[in-house]
Inverse folding.
């Protein structure tokens, strides 16, 4: 059965702030009103899957805040399959209190978005957050937000920006979202360098010819086992993301290498909670592990 390492949910689109909501509308296949990220729709979308991560968002620089309680409400629609990651902004003066409250709620990890938040991963406040996450054995998911809309400098989204945190906190499990696009090579280099780093596929699902190239290179470098399936629902359906990944060899050049089918199947079926060293949904026996 498949796992989805990145989904979002919101019942109230105004929580995304005007800039991010506008960017999401531009990225959607149809009008903004048709991009349904509601809690009920998420529960329906992940029904064919074993489990999925649902992320909260907080980026004060953009007026974005999908709260821990909202993530918890989304998870409550299907606690068998959904596990929540709290959205924290390292520049918020209340992130420590929010992290503590989220852990009490049962959140499995932390979601950040450096470019959207306008904070470099090596900023003093950010490093304090990573330290606390390492102490609590909470994985950090760096969501691929902020590369298409201005908040902080674009360079804050670069995978290489995480090299120092990965060295300083070697026990921290870190998921670099979206294969690091537009710096896919940097992302794969980071996975080769740091064994506790992972990535997911969401940003390249809409362009499967580019997804093929990224997964081919990950396979050639021997890091395909640290690539997770991600849909970034509601921007893609989880089932669509899985099918696109399994069919990705159709975009290989005539003389180009084919990624072994068993490795693509393993990617889709990889337990994202176990990979990130955190507990899975509370009712799913055998899903996820305690770090």
């Amino acid at each position: 059965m498949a796992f989805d390492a990145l989904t979002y949910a919101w019942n109230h689109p105004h929580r995304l702030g005007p800039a991010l909501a506008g960017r999401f509308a531009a990225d959607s296949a149809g009008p903004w009103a048709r991009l349904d990220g509601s809690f009920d729709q998420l529960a329906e979308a992940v029904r064919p899957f074993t489990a999925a991560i649902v992320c909260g968002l907080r980026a004060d620089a953009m007026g974005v805040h999908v709260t821990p309680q909202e993530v918890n409400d989304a998870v409550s629609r299907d606690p068998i399959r959904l596990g929540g990651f709290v959205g924290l902004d390292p520049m918020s003066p209340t992130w420590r209190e929010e992290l503590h409250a989220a852990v009490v709620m049962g959140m499995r990890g932390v979601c950040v978005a450096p470019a959207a938040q306008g904070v470099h991963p090596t900023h003093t406040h950010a490093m304090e957050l990573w330290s606390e996450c390492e102490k609590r054995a909470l994985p950090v998911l760096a969501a691929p937000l902020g590369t298409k809309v201005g908040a902080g400098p674009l360079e804050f989204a670069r995978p290489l920006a995480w090299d120092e945190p990965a060295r300083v906190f070697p026990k921290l499990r870190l998921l670099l979202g979206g294969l690091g696009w537009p710096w896919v090579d940097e992302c794969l280099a980071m996975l080769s360098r740091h064994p506790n780093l992972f990535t997911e596929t969401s940003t390249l699902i809409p362009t499967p010819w580019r997804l093929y190239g990224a997964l081919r290179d990950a396979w050639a470098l021997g890091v395909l086992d640290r690539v997770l399936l991600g849909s970034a629902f509601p921007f893609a359906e989880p089932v669509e993301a899985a099918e696109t990944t399994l069919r990705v060899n159709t975009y290989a050049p005539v003389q180009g290498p084919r990624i072994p089918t068993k490795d693509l199947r393993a990617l889709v079926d990889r337990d994202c909670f176990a990979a990130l060293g955190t507990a899975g949904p509370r009712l799913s026996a055998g899903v996820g592990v305690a770090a």
Residues 208-221 form the longest helix (14 residues). The chain has a mean pLDDT of 91.
